[in-house]
Amino acid sequence: MIVLAGGDIVLPDRILTSASLIIDSTRIGSIEPTTRVDATGATIVDATDCYVVPGFIDVHVHGIEGHDTLDGGSAIAEIASRLPRYGVTAFCPTTVACAPKELRAVLAQVKAARASRPEGSARVLPAHLESNFINPEYRGAQPIGCLRSPIADPKGPRRIEQGDPHDAARAFTAREGDFTANDILQVIRSSRSDVGIVTLAPELPGGIELVRSLVTAGHLVSIGHTGANFDETIAAIEAGASHATHLFNRMTPMTHREPGVVAALLSRQDVAAELICDGYHVHPAMCRLAITAKGVDGIMAITDGTGGSGLPVGSTARLGGRTIRVSEHGALLEDGTLAGSTLTMDRAFEAIVSRFEFSIVEAATLCSMTPARQLALAGFGFIAEGAVADLVVLDRGFRVVRTFIDGREVYRNGGVA
Ligand SMILES: [Zn+2]
Description:
It is built from ten helices and 22 strands. It has helices at 75-82, 100-115, 165-169, 181-190, 207-216, 230-238, 260-267, 284-294, 345-354, 360-374, and strands at 2-10, 15-24, 27-32, 43-46, 51-54, 56-61, 63-64, 67-68, 88-95, 123-124, 127-130, 195-200, 220-223, 243-244, 272-276, 299-302, 316-319, 322-326, 331-333, 391-394, 400-405, 408-412.
């Protein structure tokens, strides 16, 4: 038994100040409104001047501290072992578009990591594929040669024309490797339970049919890297897409006569949207606007973190095999293209409170409860008696002091227990 004594315990609806949380094996046993608890034989952890929050769940993270999901070898295990120091207790390993062979290899790692969690590592959840089925015009740092149309366009491949995303969506001329859309779908089919989220652009030829078939197979379909207009986005939602990839980034913007993807996502409560909470990918005022529009139950704070996260400015790392460099505001490809962030979840939490001006309770909902609910993780993402004891102790600057997974301390600032 472990007692987190005297902390400010962040419940789903309020903060219980100077209280104690008792961990009984892998669960939260009880919560007492007092700093002192008589529990013979229990380990007492002083949590005074700290917040106790539910463990962070990052549904969109590519890597950390020099490791990328597509590095091969034991990349997924390496990432899982490093995330608890940032308060992450569960995460969806996220891949950029890649060849079937690489995808198969990473999903095999995900399967193994889900089957047995090494001591001290974050929980590995089913993967998030920023898939091959995205709009080339909105690809960002995704490798264009790996992008595919869900079905062959009857008009045939064309050169990419700048300016018309619908034309660009049909253009798949520069190809890397010899594989088809169907080869990728075959990999997804054969690893069904290890693929949680599939990001795609619904306006591609066959896009809506792909939404339907992936949803039927049990995946969360996420609208992202897309040039869809408002109506196409609504059609995707009607077809079952219930997730959105990094709201605002790499999608048609919202204007008053062209409401685009953003307005469709903001106006539909049956879609939960990811938001990169570093204050740079999306301006703090727009973060505040989006969270206010959808409510904290409709937004998931994500990092979109890369192998550059946790490394100093100027460091290099990889994203899907390509070199990225850590800049002041995020990770960049060699040509300067923004290639994800260097954000970590503890800093996202801090930004939500300090810069976006939401409450600590709301920040915990955005970083833990809403992602848990979206992934249907029963017993996760909140603090209550009987919930799974995945917990983070934060100091007053929202720095991680300790992280617990399944009731066991997996990280302590200054040295792992
Ligand atoms: Zn990403």
